[in-house]
Write the structure tokens for this entry.
Amino acid sequence: MESVQPSFLFWPGVTGLLILAIAVGFLLYVFTGSSRLVAGVLFLGLLLLLGLGFMRSAGYNGPPRAPLVELAPPRMPISSAQLGPAANTLLCDVPAKGHRFVYVIDCSASMGQGGPASPLESVKESLKRSVTALQRNHRFQMLAFDRGLGRCFDAASEQLASADNSTVVQAFEWIDGLVADKGADETKRFIAGDALYEALNLQPDVIYFVTDGQVAQPTDSRLELLRKWNTAGRTVLHVIQLVPEVQQASQANAGKTKWLADLANKHRGQFRQVAIADLPREEPRESKQAPPSAAVAATTPAKPPDWVKHPPQPLQRFGDVRRSVATSGPCPDEESCRESLDMALLASAAGYVDQVVEHGAGRKLIDDPAARERILQYLAANVVKELYSEPYDAPDLRIENGVVRHARLEYNEPAANFFRQEWRMVVQEERLLLLAGGVGVFLAFVGTIFAYLKIDTATRGYYSGRLRLTAGAMIIGLIVAAVALFG
């Protein structure tokens, strides 16, 4: 077990004694005027300070203490081995696997024809279900094009967003707000080739391109530039065409849609025509929530794995690895399920930190907002080895079409090192805050003494009584602040 010990200067008792000795000496001077008595109290306080510090240092047999400010090792770029489990998602029955996804959605006027049964409205539920399969260690972006290019997430960052709870909910709201254009001049339209270029520029593993095939076909030269821009075929591009009926569209529009099939083929993807009537529809709900358990059931194995039916003991050791299972518990929707699973993951991590760092460190780590987010990212990428979701109905709990999510966790030595580093960072931040607070209290104390002497000298002792009371009250206030800071 590794314990990060506080340095001598930041031992609360010693620092408090130092401030208390100075404060008592000044109060004696204020009320007695005896400089010898003040010097004696300060001298005794200094001797006591040095004696306690020597005894504490001599009696400490633990590992060498960390320096006051220890620079954390530089964070190296995440390699492919550190990305964690890849996502297995579906969009209109087209499977994809990877860590980085971009959805390109055609919002031209033809996508809005048909009102509630239009291609754009019909595909919204499928888009939500696809995003639901992504986890925190996966990244994604959604682009919509017609007159211009709309982005789901901040365009300034030009990066993919992590699929955490807030971004998934934001994506659902963005999908709900998609509206087809009312009809635009072709010369002002943001053509499909430009949108795909923007998507490839994000360097995803997978692009889903959703259209009805009525968009203007890019030129052959532009399509060739897209193929060259897809460096070494890194990105797989799937093309999904939404049509009224698959057989009819295949016969009537084979020539018009050939470029869509060629586009998918050149980028190692699939081209699929999907009948609008076959797409899943979202049931009306009172509030915007994640899709119900029907989205989970579509990708859930028939039988739960053995680690779900017979989970190990929490943090049970298997050789050099500690294994555990985190469960969200019954949840009414995917949004609350993600939040509950995050809390279960943090609780498991806190227990592990208490074992490999020191008791109580786990709770302190997860209570720090910045450390908590870093821990969740690390858990999703390195500790979570497998996820399993299953539908759940509990009428007695008023949960219908609910979901339960399980995560299989494995903690190894690199995980222990990560948590030790995070603990060092938290301790160092606390030390710097204590240093800043101690310096602030000391400067306030010195300023109070200087102001008292200066004003008393300037007024030739005319307001000595009032000044003593004011200075004494301020000193007592500083003592209370020091006790609150170091106690």
About this structure: The CA atoms of residues 331 and 337 lie 5 Å apart. The chain has 15 helices and 13 strands.
